[in-house]
């Protein structure tokens, strides 16, 4: 969880998440963020010393929201097996949730000064996806429990699907997203069925 902030700093972070999700780092205006938070730019600097500091604080808050979304998807996945509820939620969430838009923009189009910190946060996000997928896979198919290599391969394939869908959202704004999702889901399901049949 990100460190607790004062109510004013939290309000600035929420305004920054929305603004950065629309303008990213280079196009962002601290004047506009301050105005959206209902303060003057000078007051913003009383809470955050620089654009980098605000960007990272906003990213950490967006990341926390998206980690919760991952947990929710895997805890309520009765109708969509093997982590697909998360994948199926992405396109609509990207449109409606500035936290996801900002997190993905920050992960794929990083300001160089924050690369290490942003990479670390995004890797934590992918690690949670990997861990929850493995748990779901083993719960659905206990026969795989002794096949460590297969579990690792399917987990890597799942993260490949996630990465491909994230790229579609960031670089094409989701064009042909559903077609790619359907194709990748079919490949994963078919490969899993084949593997289970040969155990």
Keywords:
Tetracycline Repressor, domain 2, 199 residues, mainly alpha
Write the layout of secondary structure elements.
Layout: H1 7-23, H2 30-36, H3 41-47, H4 51-75, H5 84-96, H6 98-108, H7 115-140, H8 148-172, H9 177-198
Helix pairs in contact: 1-2, 1-4, 1-6, 4-6, 4-7, 5-6, 5-8, 5-9, 6-7, 7-8, 8-9
Low-confidence stretches are none
**Overall 3D shape:** elongated
Mean pLDDT: 93
User: How does the major sheet shape up?
Assistant: none
Radius of gyration, in Å, reads: 19 Å
Description:
- This protein has 199 residues and is mainly alpha-helical.
- The chain has one domain (7-198): Tetracycline Repressor, domain 2 (Orthogonal Bundle).
- It has helices spanning 7-23, 30-36, 41-47, 51-75, 84-96, 98-108, 115-140, 148-172, 177-198.
- Helix 7 (115-140) crosses helix 8.
- It is elongated and about 65 Å long.
- The protein starts with 6 loop residues before the first helix and ends with a helix.
- The model has no long low-confidence stretch (mean pLDDT 93).
Question: Could you provide a short overview of the structure?
Answer:
This protein has 9 helices and no strands.
């Amino acid at each position: 969880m990100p460190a607790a902030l004062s109510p004013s700093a939290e309000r600035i972070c929420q305004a920054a998440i929305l603004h950065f999700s629309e303008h990213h780092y280079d196009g962002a205006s601290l004047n506009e963020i301050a105005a959206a938070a209902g303060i003057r730019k000078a007051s913003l600097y009383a809470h955050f010393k620089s654009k980098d500091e605000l960007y990272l604080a906003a990213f950490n808050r967006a990341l926390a929201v998206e980690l919760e979304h991952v947990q929710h998807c895997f805890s309520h996945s009765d109708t969509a097996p093997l982590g697909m509820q998360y994948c199926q939620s992405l396109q609509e969430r990207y449109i409606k949730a500035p936290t996801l838009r900002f997190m993905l923009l920050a992960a794929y189009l990083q300001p160089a000064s924050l690369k290490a910190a942003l990479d670390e946060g995004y890797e934590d996000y992918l690690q949670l996806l990997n861990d929850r997928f493995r748990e779901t896979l083993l719960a659905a198919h206990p026969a795989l429990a002794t096949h460590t290599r297969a579990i690792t391969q399917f987990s890597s394939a799942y993260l490949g699907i996630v990465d491909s869908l994230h790229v579609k959202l960031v670089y094409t704004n989701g064009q042909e997203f559903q077609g790619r999702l359907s194709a990748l889901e079919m490949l994963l399901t078919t490969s899993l069925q084949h593997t289970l049949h040969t155990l």
